[in-house]
Amino acid sequence: MEAMKRDYRDQLEGRTQSLEHLMSKISEQEECINRIRNEAQQAQQSLREERRMFALSKEGTSARIRYLEGMMRSLQAELRDRERIDHELRGTTLTPRPVFLRDLTVAMGETDTWDEEQVRLGATKSPPPAFPCDSAFANKIVGHPRHEDPMRDGDDEADDHDCTEGDGLLPSDDDTNVIALLREEIASLGNSLAQSETRRADMLDDFQRERQEYIAQYKRLSEVVKKLVVERGASGAGALVIDEIAQN
């Protein structure tokens, strides 16, 4: 009887130990399951965050590409406007100088630098128009009583007198002050014209320099856009748009 009780106790203890062992394994499995669930939730959360960041990055890249495309279009429009202005300015450089300025310069005996510049640029130099009173005007200046030519014919004096009275523009022999004032005004007008031509040439040089800077900036911007499209993996359509803009 005692032996049976011992056997029963031994069996009960063995089953109790087995049950405890199973319970410990179940606890371990539950902990493992909970850990796996937590890791799965963290992985899902990380995946959602990655997707959100990818979407934001894609939208930001598209926005930057659109912004750069707009900048390139603006630069193209500005380049076209500047080329049009350059063409207009180049057209004005060949505009003939007013005839009265050329005649006054010739009357002063100064070098016609404007005509020399036109010849250098390839334009045809046209001789100044002949006026019937040019010789009379020169003779009036040289023919002052202090410089009177004793060999001068009386008929020539009569012709000069007629030309002077007919035009009403030439000074008399006693108007030396008027002639000097006219010379000063002509010299001042010539200096002003030379300064104006110099400023216009400087403006053309500045325009050409700015135009080259805009072209270089446009090329750099095109390279940046292409590099951005390649790095961000934009669609083929976006790349085609960039190439089309660069070609235009």
From TrEMBL:
Recorded coiled-coil stretches: 19-53, 179-224
Region of interest (Disordered), residue spans: 144-170
UniProt keyword terms in alphabetical order: Coiled coil
Protein name: Uncharacterized protein
